[in-house]
Design a protein that fits this description.
With about 90 residues, the chain is mainly alpha-helical. It is built from four helices and no strands. The longest helix has 18 residues.
Length: about 90
């Protein structure tokens, strides 16, 4: 009986946590709107990925990530690394 009450309580908590959401209303001032446009333009025009192809970027990021996660090459097999490159 105790397990049933506990399971029901957990299910209800999960259900209510998903159904309740906070409504946030953010008023956007003209100044913030202009700032967001400026940031977008700077990122799209001056970002260091701008002049590179996406495939090259993905390969560089994968190599950097593998170097950080497995510098001694003892955790990932060659097949795993090859499968990462195919993604």
């Amino acid at each position: 009986m105790h397990k049933y009450i506990r399971a029901t309580s957990i299910i209800l908590i999960i259900f209510f946590s998903f159904t309740s959401e906070a409504k946030i209303s953010i008023e956007v001032s003209k100044e913030k709107e202009l700032l967001s446009k400026e940031i977008f333009l700077k990122i799209s025009n001056e970002h260091f990925f701008r002049n590179q192809q996406l495939d090259n970027i993905n390969l560089q990021l994968l190599q950097s990530l593998l170097k950080q996660l497995d510098p001694e090459k003892i955790y990932f097999t060659k097949n795993e690394v090859a499968s990462f490159r195919r993604l």
